[in-house]
Amino acid sequence: MAPSRLPVRRPYLIVAAYSGRILWLTSFLFFLPPLALLFYPEERIWALSFLVPGLSLGVVGWGLWRSFRPKSPATLSFQDGAVAVLLVWSVASVFAAFPMASAGRLTPVQALFESVSAWTTTGLSVVDVENAPRLLLLWRSLLQLAGGAGLAIFLVALAGSPNGTGLSSAEGRTDQLVPHIRSSTKLVLSLYGAYALIGIAGYLAAGLSLFDSVNHAFAAVSTGGFSTRGSSIGAWDRAAVEAVSIPLMLLGNLNFLTAFLLVRGRFRAVARNGEIRLLVVAAASAFLLAFLFVSRNLYPQMDKALRVALFETLSALTTTGFSTVSYGDWNGFGRSLLIVLMIIGGGTCSTAGGVKQARVHLLFRSLFWEIRGALLPPGALLVPVMADGERETAVTGGKIREVGVYFFLYVLALAVGTLLLAGQDIPLEAALFETASALGTVGLSVGVVSATATSTTLWTLTAAMFLGRLEFLVVFVALARLWRDFVSNDR
Q: What is the Cα–Cα distance from 468 to 198, expressed in whole angstroms?
């Protein structure tokens, strides 16, 4: 029976090889925080916390690549890419947790939670950031920056491998700015790098230190939301800092294709984009509702009320997770509004999470098409179309069904996560808020996530962050493929 399974398992050698290559490249991230010792020599005690796991990951990755490297260039299918992405994200998260556990003095469960939160650009944290080593804070920000670009697409294209399509598709990034995946990815990284540099300069101009500027710029453009302060952006309580953060959050929220069109001056194509229209309508409506029913009643100064309403709603919608206030004083309407925004999420093929604005827009349009179709005379044919850049594209029933299935899975995961947290004696509203935040990779919290959170709570939210970042399909396809090839075939 073993020879019959050999052809089935041969693709996994290619998966192992390319996964090893990515992990080897990922290991170089571990050597960046120790470079900060030039500025903070007093933290040299933590250097080995990064160097040892970095070297270990490098050896593992290089060993896999050298052992299973294909003799001729090979392209990964979507199924192979799903397995590779699941493998890379899992292994990278485990290795990245070692510095968290050592420098952050966290338990293994807390360290893995913090690592997954960073890689998935969520921003939920159990670290006491006010007393944590600067190397650890920088490490979290670097992980968010890398995770925001997409670990696979970030590293595979740089390596020049011909397997980028399967991996980037598996991560849900199917829009290409240019025909070749490697050139497309380099352009994405150029935009991403430009965002980060602009952010650093902006925060410096707003009065932040270089260290705070770097960390918050990385967190903003990756829509990650980690902060070097316990009260996040609210620690400064400056309109200038918020004014820098908002454009960065919006840029991180944008589909990279949309950003590319903006750079090229194709504003008409951008204006016709359904995501952009939904973003404008949702942001404006949420801001107005938050101001009228929440902030103006809590903050007597008009400018403060307007700033809070604008910043908090945009932070939730873009899934960044920065905050300027505590939600303890917010009424149920305000917290529920944030939950809805976190579920909607950001742009497709961006650093943001959530259901994604393109899917929500399509669901609204499909409802319109159903009503319009019901009003047509017998025999009339309705062809659903949507703007795709500067052209109209027909929307198939299969596409609508695919989005409907995804939305169902998202709501199901949200319900299961909420019930699991509620079973930990967490109030239902708080459980729903935290699950929506983790599943949407947002990072806003009403206080459930802390150093005192139970292991069950952290495991539940870790799974939610992982599923939300890889968008269900990757995880399900990878697990189904592994089950078929290694379990059912053995019976």
A: 28
